[in-house]
Please model this.
Amino acid sequence: MPKKNVTADESAVQEKAVAVEEPVTAEAAEKPVRKTAAKKSAAKKTETAEAAEKPAKKTAAKKPAAKKDATAEAAEKPVKKPAARKKTVKAETAESAPAAETPAEENLNDITVEIYEEPAEAAPPVEEAPAEEMSLPQPRRSVAFIGSECYPFVKTGGLGDVMYALPKALAARNCDVKVILPRYKCIPRKWQEKMVYRGEFMMDLCADGRSFYVGIMEYVWDGVVYDFIDNEEFFSAGNPYINLIDDIPRYCFFSKAALAALNYMNWVPDIVHCHDWQAALVPIYLRTLFAGTPVASAKSVLTIHNLRFQGLYGIPTIKYWSGLPDHVFNIDVLKQGYDDANMLKGGLAYADMITTVSPTYAGEIQTPFYGENLDAHMRHHAYKLRGIVNGIDTVQWDASTDSKLAANYDAENVIAQKRANKRALQEALGLEQDEGKFVIGLISRLTDQKGLDLVNAILPQLIDGNTQVVVLGTGDAHYEDSFRWFEQAYKGSVCSYIAYDEGLAHQIYAASDALLVPSLFEPCGLTQLIAMRYGTVPIVRETGGLKDTVAPYNQYENSGSGFTFDRYETGLLLDAINRAKTLYFTERERWDEMVRRDMARDVSWGVSAEQYRALYLELKP
Ligand code: ADP
Ligand code: GLC
Model:
């Protein structure tokens, strides 16, 4: 495969940390596989070989070396026809392709699909919707979420949070939700052990017909069904994102395997909801190689969590690994520049609807500054672009029950209990123990997106004897080094904890007075939402979702939820922090009122999940 230098932006992804709660050893990852083999004989095959995955050729010779022995055996076994209802699904013609090019109608034959009645216990438990929602006429909708990370299995940032919390919120709103994820080896053992073998098949992937093993491992939890796509050759690395050279093939595989798995499971959703470039080929596959198969009746939604990451690589490589037809490698779809293909760009062209994670970012990405070279493409597709702001899971983030905190609290006792959390954090991190200090937290991937150049430039001016700064993050080496240096230079006042630590994050949210999010750009941002929920006042730059979620403090009306600044300038950030400190040290009652106001704000998924649901209904009335 031709190699190419990874751009600075793309390589930033490599720096992302992975939430691994315990080391996953080679044996540990093997364990569920052995289990799988044992379960296999009991597992009933639900489909004919053809319906299982049409393009797959079950040739033993083509099986990858990494394929497990147990699965190899199973693949050879004649597939038993179940005593199930049988129906013929009339293939649909390819539809709603971008005007510039009509996708070829690759699979237009009628397809015979065995419909298999699921055993009752396999049905996902559905959370009860609140009474007022139950009374509304609510047609049930089914959605397959397809994305590269999901808390608590694997998370490097906010995408993982959204992939966990939004499906849960939708399941509580009369939606059937399946979340389809890669089965990375780094998923902690305690989750791997809960997964149950759901099936396997071989799937053609590459332009030369090379085929790969696809296993499906399932876990049902909290009303949501999680299906993990298994293939050791692609997903055995320790981190979900390695570098583009490896990531392009694995996410081509993942996107195609996700759709093939839906066909295999006979679970045809109303909507396939794809997330970021890693799943961006899904809308294209849906209308090309899967046209005429059952899953093609679904509509596609592609959500941009961060336009900076696009899956940009040479056309020959993406053409080879995706196996997509030549006609989608044109300038309106996948092609970019002279010889590159852009997976996100292609997905945006083919998706029935595009969303991004805040209304402001939806506008920003249509401008050259925020458009990451796709602003013209975004403007072209603006008619199907919506901005829906993220929420957070208010059960996961609840200071009154959070077991990671030194002292639990609610809006009633937040002021006193925050002090207790502050003392505990200061002690744990070796900061001067003084609850009178103004503690500023920063929890972030350490990349240039997050406005860290501004923070580095003003940090010495913040340390005035009354202020402490706590940084938690991993990322680009130069930021990690500069924060480490500040910790040495301002011992007792600055702590730079260069790591990914879920528990410490909770403690910093609870113990800090303010949380800094001075981003250069921020599609939505979740840390400011979590901060408000924990009574910690956000100090943010007015961009993207930060602008949509943090109302600036108004001293005349005594209103607002945080301190904000607009232009990306050090002086303005310093001024915003100083305004916060002034209120904190001179008008504490007003500060405390803001803390309580923030805690009372609705940062849940409630409103936004309804918006997604309405959007699904609009696509599939
Ligand atoms: P992004 O997705 O751009 O990284 P978000 O604000 O949307 O930013 O989400 C970041 C999520 O990752 C939050 O849940 C935050 O608490 C978490 N997080 C970021 N860095 C760390 C870290 N070093 N340790 C623990 N959690 C982190
Ligand atoms: C991205 C963005 C962040 C957003 C998150 C979840 O990582 O950088 O702003 O909150 O996705 O949508």
User: Anything to note?
Assistant: Residues 52-84+109-116+128-387 form a domain with the Rossmann fold fold (CATH 3.40.50.2000). The mean pLDDT is 84. Residues 244-264 form the longest helix (21 residues). The longest strand covers residues 211-221.
